[in-house]
Design brief:
The complex is a heterodimer of chains A (307) and B (364). The termini of chain A are far apart. Chain A has 307 residues and is mainly alpha-helical. In chain A, 68% of the residues lie in helices and 0% in strands. With 364 residues, chain B is mainly alpha-helical. Chain B has two domains: 243 residues, MetI-like fold; 38 residues, no CATH class. In chain B, the strands form two sheets. In chain B, strands 1-2 form a two-stranded antiparallel ribbon. In chain B, β3 and β4 form a beta hairpin. The longest helix of chain B is centred in the N-terminal third of the chain and has 33 residues. The chains are: A mainly alpha (307), B mainly alpha (364). At the A-B interface, α3, α5, α6, α7 and α8 of A face α2, α4, α5, α6 and α8 of B.
Chain lengths: 307, 364
């Protein structure tokens, strides 16, 4: 090796040559790299192993729900049709979840976009107060809001006898209480990142402030709006307590409530196989969203700072 | 001449100090744009809170009227009795802390879960963030997998851990306890541990993610300077990394704390309703509501609400959590503070000048 390279780099002293030929990474570098790889592997395992258990548990035979084999033997997809069996009514539950989540997300966006724009761009006296109220509202314990709404929607108040139990709006309206702050908060962070010069340039070119917002800011903020929509959708989709309270009828349950109440065909056995399968089915749409838009979602989570 | 210049410098401060630094003539537009959001918030959050507070002073009339023999309907005003009954008429239950009022039991559970979970999540989350910040390759994979626990609905993770912690489940198998299994789901101390494990699993990665974002804003030069000054790894971590990541971390921890305080899905889905060893304030209030004891339910939910407000207040005042995080707002507030201090200093100085006998032309 030295003999071959020596003529080419004849002007180097042997010591310099030795330094060059040494591997560029010393043992410390390797230690660091190995520690980092091991650490990363540990994180991945930490996050995925319980999920892996749910997935393989859904792939066992329905009669082997409590099997502890690390790999299903035999692999069976029988649990999946079982999820949609008439007694579980899970397809309807997914439809309900979609209706509630999509409607809530759309409503929060409609209200949130203009509000967030005002918070990000305009200067007004009570701005600090409004921001504090919005972030404070998302901290409220759900149960505090749920109780009067439950009384209201069951018609317990004589001055306003609403009988909204088991109707979509009974779940959508309370969901706004956490969806809207989340949405406004994230959008405000996104609007702030856009340079204000954009609107100024548009207005110099003859746009009204409204047009500047509609024609310049909104298209540019589309990725932010989209990310916010995903985050809100996931938050509403994962919601449990409100749906449990307001959508109790068999045909009105959302996916999260339905899967928590699965009953077995075999009497007292908890049908773990089909519960896990339902869990996988409920989670898969979210995971697809997360995997496709992970950069955006991480940006949204950290820009919004919270939630 | 010197006097007028000084006056010109100070005069606007004196007059503008009272005016709001935000008034820019855009208040009306802001009000119009924010009106829909604030109205919705008012209806879905403001009014229910007030109604809950009112509700907590009432109690449903139960039982049979001794005079008429009819079942009592309606509610009656009971003042603070819903609150004071904890001490006056405790409804004793036996959780893991011995026999005590059900409300106190729920309160202790809520506190225990919050303290233990948040501490563990913070330690694990910061460790994860440090590992991810060091890594060159594979960050995409790790980020994707870290989002998995975050994206799984809490109730799905609850049933998932329910299976794992089943008496004949995989947790006992991994721990080598197949012969003497632990009854994780059996309403005991181990159920609390199971809940803590499930909660930490789901949310530690989330804290890691937010901390990582904070870590990435620390410029490399700071670390280089520390190395040049001879700081070791531990010193670098405690003197540079932690202080610089603190603002992001404190906000993340605050939000996790408030979220854990209202924990509902996990105890409900994993162990089940009505299990005293894991009953949180949310679950307790919910069960009371289901039993149509609205007054009591409202009371317990208000107690939880006040607890959350107190913790948030402590975070903001003691740890300086900058929750709002608006740069402009911060700048204006700082400027206001500076002006106030300046003003104070000036008035103090002038007061001194006035009282000094020997001062003649102190104006300059």
């Amino acid at each position: 090796m030295t003999q071959v390279t020596a003529p080419v780099v004849a002007h180097l002293t042997p010591e310099e040559l030795g330094a060059l030929q040494k591997p560029s990474h010393d043992s410390r570098w390797w230690m660091g790299t190995i520690a980092s790889v091991v650490g990363m592997a540990l994180i991945v395992l930490y996050c995925l192993v319980p999920f892996y258990w749910m997935v393989i548990s859904s792939l066992r035979l329905p009669t082997m729900g409590l099997s502890n084999d690390y790999w299903p033997n035999p692999i069976s997809f029988e649990n999946y049709p079982g999820v949609f069996s008439p007694q579980n009514n899970f397809l309807r539950a997914i439809v309900n979840s979609v209706v509630v989540s999509v409607t809530t997300t759309a409503l929060t966006l409609v209200f949130g976009i203009i509000g967030a724009y005002a918070l990000a761009r305009l200067r007004f006296a009570a701005k600090g107060l409004v921001l504090a109220v919005i972030i404070g509202a998302s901290m409220f314990p759900g149960i505090t809001l749920l109780l009067p709404l439950f009384k209201l929607f069951t018609g317990a108040y004589e001055w306003m006898p609403l009988h909204w139990l088991n109707q979509y709006q009974a779940a959508i309206i309370p969901s706004l209480s956490f969806g809207l702050p989340l949405c406004v908060w994230n959008l405000t962070a996104f609007f702030r990142q856009l340079p204000v010069e954009l609107e100024q340039a548009a207005m110099v070119d003859g746009c009204t402030p409204g047009e500047a917002f509609r024609k310049v800011i909104l298209p540019l903020a589309a990725p932010g709006v989209f990310t916010t929509a995903i985050l809100t959708f996931i938050a509403v989709w994962n919601e449990f307590m409100i749906s449990l309270t307001f959508l109790q009828a068999r045909d009105m349950k959302t996916a999260t409530v339905a899967l928590s109440q699965f009953t077995g065909t075999l009497g007292f056995n908890t049908p773990y196989g089909s519960i896990m399968a339902a869990g996988v089915i409920t989670t898969i749409p979210l995971l697809i969203l997360v995997l496709f838009f992970q950069r955006r979602i991480v940006a949204g989570l950290t820009a919004g700072g919270v939630k | 001449m010197a006097v007028t210049a000084a006056e010109q410098r100070t005069a606007p401060v004196a007059t503008k100090r009272k005016k709001n630094a935000f008034s820019d003539g855009q208040g009306t537009l802001a009000a119009i744009l924010l009106a829909p959001t604030l109205l919705v918030m008012f209806f879905v959050t403001g009014i229910p809170i007030v109604m809950s507070i009112i509700e907590s002073f009432f109690r449903a009339n139960g039982g049979v009227d001794p005079n008429t023999g009819l079942v009592n309907n309606g509610t009656s005003f009971v003042g603070l009795q819903n609150f004071t009954d904890v001490f006056a008429h405790p409804g004793l239950v036996v959780g893991v802390y011995g026999s005590m009022d059900r409300l106190i039991n729920a309160f202790l559970n809520t506190t225990l879960f919050t303290v233990v979970c948040v501490i563990l999540e913070t330690i694990l989350g910061v460790a994860m963030a440090l590992i991810m910040a060091k890594a060159f390759r594979g960050r995409g994979l790790v980020r994707a997998s870290i989002l998995v626990p975050w994206a799984i609905p809490t109730i799905v993770s609850a049933v998932m851990w329910k299976l794992i912690f089943n008496t004949s489940g995989v947790a006992n198998k991994v721990l080598g306890l197949t012969n003497t299994p632990i009854l994780w789901l059996g309403d005991n101390r181990y159920s609390q541990l199971a809940i803590i494990v499930a909660d930490v699993w789901k949310t530690a990665p989330f804290i890691g993610l937010l901390t990582l974002a904070g870590l990435q804003t620390i410029p490399a030069e700071v670390y280089e300077a520390a190395r040049v000054d001879g700081a070791n790894a531990w010193q670098t971590f405690t003197r540079i990394t932690l202080p610089m990541v603190k603002p992001a971390l404190v906000v993340a921890v605050l939000f996790r704390t408030l979220d854990t305080l209202r924990m509902f899905d996990l105890p409900w889905g994993m162990i089940g309703p009505g299990k005293y060893s894991v009953e949180t304030l949310s679950v307790f209030a919910y069960l009371e509501m289901n039993a149509t004891r609205y007054g009591q339910a409202a009371t317990y939910s208000i107690i939880l609400f006040l607890y959350i407000v107190l913790i948030a207040f402590l975070f903001v005042t003691l740890l300086g959590a900058d929750v709002v995080g608006d740069e402009e707002l911060k700048a204006v507030n700082q400027q206001r503070k500076r002006m106030r201090e300046l003003h104070k200093k000036q008035s103090k100085a002038s007061a001194k000048v006035r009282t000094t006998i020997t001062s003649g032309g102190a104006a300059s």
